[in-house]
Write a structure and sequence with these properties.
Blueprint (H helix, E strand, L loop, with lengths): L1 E6 L1 H5 L1 H12 L4 E6 L2 H10 L5 E3 L2 E3 L2 H25 L4 E6 L5 E5 L8 E7 L1 H9 L3 E9 L5 E4 L1 H11 L4 E5 L6 E2 L2 E2 L2 E2 L1 H9 L5 H15 L3 E5 L11 E3 L11 E2 L2
Parallel strand pairs: 1-2, 1-10, 2-8, 5-8, 7-9, 7-16, 10-14, 13-15
Antiparallel strand pairs: 3-4, 6-7, 8-9, 11-12, 14-15
Helix pairs in contact: 3-4, 6-8, 7-8
Length: 258
């Protein structure tokens, strides 16, 4: 079993929650790659530095100054906190970013309308495969390499989905601070691809959850089984909302490096 676990910044920022998260990831069968976010920590640092915090359609707008903060928080502070938590439990882990070894290559999203926000165009699975083969848990910051060599801020859900597809993962866990996809306050335990698409198109899923569902749809069409929910999904895959992999084709136009 090969899994990709995407964790939000809230789980990474809380010491107790992070320890539980690491314990759960280490207990998963087979191998696992962790992709982490850190949105709340980024926003907190932007506010301290009196930089504007702006969102559009659930995605962070990232100007030049905000990009420096994002890279420092995600690839530095947050990434190493997760690695340290694994090591404290005796689990070997290595922290890398999408920039390292050109692991994740991206281009400006929406023609640059979101600033230094990127969308993934290429993933190198061999780097992750080498680390997994050596017995490490890779911990990935989604800050990625842009076409001019400068970093781009890629949404962590998007980075996780493309990593999952590139390495041929069996499962992807989208761990957040909600129990699953909600419809009128009720958790939807299973979603067909058509129903998931309708929730986004009809506006039932909005903001960050709409982003998660869009990414989950792409992953499921690539044959990856996806769970969305809080930390309980790491102990019971069906504790949140599950989208079953359909193997309809490739992930968009993203290239998998050989």
């Amino acid at each position: 079993m090969l899994s990709v676990v995407k964790v939000g910044g809230a789980a990474v920022s809380d010491a107790e929650g992070l320890q539980r998260l690491v314990q759960d990831v280490a207990s998963l069968p087979g191998n696992a790659v962790v992709v982490h976010g850190g949105g709340k920590e980024i926003s907190a640092w932007q506010e301290r530095l009196e930089l504007p915090v702006e969102w559009r359609d659930g995605l962070r707008v990232t100007g030049p100054d905000a990009l420096q903060v994002t890279a420092m928080v995600l690839s530095g502070w947050m990434n190493k906190r997760v690695v340290q938590a694994f090591e404290d439990r005796g689990v070997t882990a290595v922290g890398i970013s999408g920039e390292d070894g050109s692991l994740i290559q991206a281009v400006p999203a929406q023609g640059g309308a979101l600033g230094a926000v990127g969308e993934v165009v290429r993933v190198r699975p061999d780097l992750l495969e080498a680390l997994l083969g050596a017995g490490f848990h890779p911990v990935v910051s989604p800050v990625s390499r842009g076409p001019d060599g400068h970093p781009l801020n890629v949404n962590a859900d998007e980075a996780a989905l493309h990593v999952a597809a590139a390495i041929g993962a069996d499962r992807m866990y989208l761990v957040s601070d909600v129990p699953g996809v909600l419809d009128e306050g009720e958790v939807l335990r299973e979603l067909s691809l058509d129903r998931a698409r309708a929730l986004v198109e009809e506006g039932v899923a909005q903001g960050g959850m709409a982003v998660k569902l869009r990414q989950a749809l792409v992953a499921a069409r690539a044959g990856v089984e996806v769970a969305i929910g809080d930390g309980r999904i790491l102990r019971d895959f069906r504790a949140g909302t599950v989208l079953h992999g359909a193997k309809e084709g490739v992930v968009g136009a993203v290239e998998v490096a050989s």
